[in-house]
Design brief:
By secondary structure, the chain is of the alpha+beta class. The protein is 18% helix and 19% strand. It has 2 helices and 5 strands, in the order αββαβββ. The protein has a 5-stranded mixed beta sheet, covered by helices on one side.
């Protein structure tokens, strides 16, 4: 058994290579891929908020599109992200591509006139 918790895909590949190199194989080639990610959640001023499957490289803008787009009251300039395992929200400006990760909660606030 090789523990994978808390490791990136690249780090886990290195652990597997190191373990197989230690007396089993001379020059092991390892390729690791994540098959299932935790879903992400999006709430607030989107048309269809809820739980959605995560895909690699997802941004807040992509998440809004998956949720059916902005509602007419949405603030399209800012979003709030609460990372998995955290109680703090991070404010992100949507003029930049803001990445989200598996298990994140995205909140789109309403705009103020």
């Amino acid at each position: 058994d090789i523990p994978a918790g808390g490791a990136t895909v690249g780090e886990f590949e290195q652990k597997v290579v190191a373990r197989f190199s230690d007396g089993y194989l001379r020059d092991p080639k390892v390729s690791i891929e994540v098959l299932n990610y935790r879903p992400f959640f999006i709430i607030g001023e989107v048309k269809n908020g809820g739980e959605f499957p995560y895909k690699g490289g997802l941004t807040v803008q992509d998440a809004v599109a998956i949720a059916g787009g902005y509602s007419y009251r949405a603030n399209v300039n800012v979003a709030f992200i609460r990372r998995a395992g955290s109680d703090q929200e991070i404010k992100v400006e949507l003029s930049q591509r803001a990445p989200i990760f598996p298990g994140d909660n995205v909140r789109i606030p309403e705009r103020f006139f």
